[in-house]
Amino acid sequence: MKFFIALFFIFSLLAGAQAAPLPPRVLAELKKAHIPASAVGVVVREIKAGAPLIAVNAKLPMNPASTMKLLTTYAGLELLGPAYTWKTEAWLDGKLEQGVLQGDLVLKGYGDPKFTIEQFWLWLRELRARGLREIRGDLVLDRSYFELPAHDPAAFDNDPVRAYNVGPDALLLNFNTLRLRYLPDGDALKVISEPDLNGVTLDNRLVPQVAPGSTKGGCDNWDDAIRVQPDGDSVILQGGYPSVCGEREQNLSVMPHPRYVAALFRTLWQELGGALQGGAREGVAGAGAQLLSTHPSAPLSEVIRDINKFSNNVMARQLFLTLGAADGATASLPRSIEATREWLRGKGLDFPELVLENGAGLSRAERISPQHLAQLLQSAATGPLSAELVASLPILGVDGSAKKRLRDSPATGHAHLKTGTLEGVKTIAGYVRSHAGREWVLVFFINHPNAKLGQAAQDALIEWVQRRHY
Length: 470
What we know:
Blueprint (H helix, E strand, L loop, with lengths): L1 H18 L4 H9 L7 E7 L7 E3 L12 H12 L6 E11 L2 E10 L7 H13 L4 E2 L3 E4 L35 E8 L2 E7 L6 E4 L2 E3 L16 E6 L2 E9 L5 E5 L4 H15 L3 E2 L3 E3 L7 E7 L3 H10 L3 H11 L9 H14 L23 H12 L4 H6 L23 E8 L2 E9 L5 E9 L7 H12 L4
Helix pairs in contact: 2-11, 3-6, 3-7, 4-5, 7-8
């Protein structure tokens, strides 16, 4: 008798994968948002289970938005290793005597995703300590490690100054962004730039406003009325600033990578007492150049935390390109795409619908099915590097892009979930720990013009899974 009961239970679980509908509250929230069931893809499965508990449109190729970063970071952990570091090199292309370089200083990048101002300053300080004081030649920027087509930051959404539109670069520095701080003072408005770049000026034409005015959401969208226009070495700020919102800041990209690196180098080098007599140009070190110093990045295990918790697009793109660089070859998107597919094949994962463009999810072309993303998460959860991947994901209601979701819910702190948002796309995927202590994979894609209204439905499913007592 016990045998038949156990057999019935097993068959019930297997059948339930196809029969279990979405919970009533989830359906109600989708209906309220006017999102049809045909526009969603959902998979809920226990990590150790052989079949899903819920599978809705599971095989449908869909736009995953930033949940595609789960694929990129997991591949990075396995292909490169959690201790992998990038390097940036400083080469002397000339003779160094008594602190004076009769020649060029060459900076060669290898795709470090997180080379910040602070790290750059410390590295330049090290170059000074190694005896370099004055450069009589040029600053040469070697960006040849990445083999890339020209990047148009306006191509995705016609908003080229936004930090999320920064393109990848072998010599990426400080995410190629300026942090603008807006400081209202009565009828005046001061704007300061961090860093204060050599030769770059802020032309502040902003008009302080008493109230947010027509800005939807008030101070939640305080920057809607600000227009930023790069103009050569000047950044023009126009429009209105709601002074009632107090001090605010935003990160913007207002110049090409080489111009940014050159300006920041001059600023910091002068602060350190150094001198650069020549200009800045792109190129490579000559055959007789000597290596002066190598700067290592943070390890990959730290880098993926920024990529996933804060959904950093350019960092994800840097990592994705690195996947295709092997045996000294330059990095390129075709090599990275093939390396990722080969890695999946080696794991026995067949994703024929997978479309990769940049590995960050900031794409109208990228596709993966909910079923296969869930399968990937299940594979990661049972692999040796599961702790590193899970730790990189936002904790529900606690940090990262999930910080403000379900903050007063029993599910708070019981899920590690990556979010994704584009126009017409809202996604979430990751792991949920149920009330019974079991670990569940959850994937919920929405591809529909009303996708931005679908968060309540996603949250309802998260809570439903977390409340499970079995």
